Every structure is written in C-alpha cells, then in structure tokens.
C-alpha cells in the first residue's frame, strides 16, 4: 500500500486522547485500527479508505477525521461533519481473507457482507457508546443510532468488486460527540452524546471501543454467529417492532407496522395483515 498516492498531506499522529485509548485497547482491537490514519479534516473518510483498499490496504485499516468537507450518508445525503463536533471513521473490511467472511457452514440464508456489516456495526457502535459513556444508544433500521427520536450516529457500508466478486467493504461511522448547534433543518432530529449527557465525553474511548467491538463482531462472523448478533440487534432496536412506517413501491406509497428483522437483515412490516420485507429505499418513521 502506498498512501502517498492520495491526498493525505494533512495526516498527522492522532491526538493524545485518541492515541491513549487506542493503546489501551490494542489487544481487543486486533487488526481494527492498525494502521490508523488520522487527519483533522478530510473531504470524505470513506473515499480515502476506498482508495487505500484499492491499493491493497489490509482489513482493519482505519481512517479518522475530526471534520469532513464532503461527508455523505445513506441515499447520497450530506452528513453534517463540522470541525470539533464528532468522529468520522472509515474501516476497510475484506470478505475473503484467510479465515474471513464465509462462516464454517454457509447456507442460502446467509446475508451478504455489506448488509450484515451495517447491522452488526450498529450493534458494535451502540455497545461502544454504552460502555464508554453510559448513554443507552438504540438502533433504528437500517443504519442509524438513536437517542429517543433523534439521531446520534449513522453507518454507511460501501462495497466494491467486479461482477459477483466482492473485493472489500468500507464501513463508515459518523458519530455526533460534542454538543453543537445543528442546522435548523436538522435541529429537531439530531443530537449528540454530550448533548444528551450534559457532560464531557472522552471521544477516544468511543472510537477505540467502536473498533474493539467491531473486531469482536468480525470474529463472531468468522464463527458463523450471525443469528446471535441479529438477536442482539433486535434487543437494541425497540422501533423494529410495533412502529408505524411508510415506504414506496412501484405501485405507490405503502403503510404498515414494523414486525421485526428477517434472517437476511430485511425489515419486516405488517401491511394490513400481510408481512412484507423491506430491503432498501426510504423508510418514513411515523
């Protein structure tokens, strides 16, 4: 890997709070966060991680920034990433490395890596925030972490490959850490860890904890423990059952009530007594 091929002129050693937390969790993190590339500001951590992966970066290579000038979320939305507000993290995951993605027993019910990574990353990040700060973060399908009805963090898994072959997935995490003034259009639906707790939070502990829990999740994927991880996802997602939602199909707007999670990560929705699977697109939560 030749990182000099990319615009990493602003990359520096991680700040002390991050460096100390990474050092303290080295045994738990394994390959995740090793190496870690840190910059005060980047256009997009996902873009840098993708370029590094294209150049051969190993699984666990991590890019971290305090700010993004072109951060993005699901469905092409802009991710609010101002300086000093949060952590913006992207991690390379390789599907077919030695002892990699494929569980010992693969069946037709095994979900694809990008889909399952979004779900298990939600669990890992929720567990990390709970462990590092005490805040009871919850998961909302497919890729949001919530506190009540306001968004705390988001997850974006972007896959790359040719044809049926999957070369890698870049797993992006955007975490609102500091209490900041959100733009008016976001103020009612976004929050931060410090804003909820009313006190200072060690962002290094949140980052290191997230990488450590991702390493644990990756090890469990190797052992084929998808069912147990999806069970934990359900426990951390109170809106996955009994919440009114709307979504669009080719024939128009549909309405129903959430009815859980399928074995492949699809959201189950009860629409007038018929349980349907929602696998992509926009869900409107009511």
Features:
five-stranded antiparallel β-sheet; 2 domains; SH3 type barrels; BirA Bifunctional Protein, domain 2; 7 helices; disordered N terminus; 12 strands; globular; alpha+beta
List the helices and strands and how they pair.
Elements lengths: L15 H9 L1 H4 L6 E7 L2 H10 L7 E7 L17 E8 L19 H21 L4 E3 L3 E4 L2 E13 L2 E12 L16 H5 L5 H20 L3 H10 L5 E9 L2 E10 L5 E5 L2 E5 L4 E3 L1
What does this protein structure show overall?
With 286 residues, this protein is an alpha+beta fold. The protein has 2 domains: 3-235, BirA Bifunctional Protein, domain 2 (2-Layer Sandwich), CATH 3.30.930.10; 241-285, SH3 type barrels (Roll), CATH 2.30.30. The protein is 28% helix and 30% strand. The chain has 7 helices and 12 strands. Strands 1-2-3-7-6-5-4 form a 7-stranded mixed β-sheet, sandwiched between helices. It has a 5-stranded antiparallel β-sheet with strand order 11-10-9-8-12, with no helix packed on it. Helix 1 packs parallel to helix 6 (203-222). The longest helix is centred in the middle third of the chain and has 21 residues, at 113-133. Mean pLDDT is 85; it is low at 1-5 and 97-111.
Shape: globular
Which percent bin holds the helix content?
25-40%
CATH architectural arrangement of the largest domain:
2-Layer Sandwich
Uncertain regions: pLDDT < 50 for 5+ in a row? 1-5, 97-111
By secondary-structure content and strand pairing, the structural class works out as alpha+beta
Enter the CATH topology name of the largest domain.
BirA Bifunctional Protein, domain 2
Strand content: 25-35%
Q: What top-tier CATH class of the largest domain fits best?
A: Alpha Beta
How many domains comprise the coordinates? Answer: 2
End-to-end distance: 46 Å
Helix tally?
7
């Amino acid at each position: 890997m030749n990182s000099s091929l990319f615009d990493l002129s602003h990359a520096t050693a991680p700040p002390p709070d991050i460096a100390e937390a990474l050092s303290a969790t080295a045994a738990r993190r394994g390959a995740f966060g090793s190496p870690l590339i840190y910059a005060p500001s980047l256009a997009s951590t996902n873009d840098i991680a993708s370029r590094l992966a294209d150049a051969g970066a190993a699984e666990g290579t991590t890019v971290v920034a305090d700010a993004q000038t072109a951060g993005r979320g699901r469905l092409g939305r802009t991710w609010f990433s101002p300086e000093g507000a949060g952590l913006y993290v992207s991690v390379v995951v390789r599907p077919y490395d030695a002892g990699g993605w494929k569980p010992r027993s693969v069946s037709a019910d095994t979900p694809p890596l990008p889909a399952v990574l979004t779900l298990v990353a939600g669990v890992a990040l929720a567990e990390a925030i709970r462990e590092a700060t005490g805040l009871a973060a919850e998961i909302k399908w497919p890729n949001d972490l919530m506190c009540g009805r306001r968004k705390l963090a988001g997850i974006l898994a972007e896959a790359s490959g040719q044809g049926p072959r999957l070369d890698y997935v870049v797993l992006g995490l955007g975490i609102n850490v500091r209490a900041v003034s959100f733009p008016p259009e976001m103020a009612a639906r976004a929050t931060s860890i410090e804003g909820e707790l009313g006190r200072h939070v060690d962002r290094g502990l949140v980052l290191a904890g997230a990488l450590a829990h991702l390493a644990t999740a990756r090890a469990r994927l190797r052992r084929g423990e998808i069912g147990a991880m999806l069970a934990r996802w359900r426990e951390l997602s109170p809106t996955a059952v009994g919440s009114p939602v709307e979504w669009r199909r080719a024939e128009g707007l549909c309405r129903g009530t959430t009815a859980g999670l399928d074995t492949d990560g699809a959201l189950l929705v009860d629409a007038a007594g018929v349980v349907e699977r929602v696998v992509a697109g926009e869900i409107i939560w009511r």
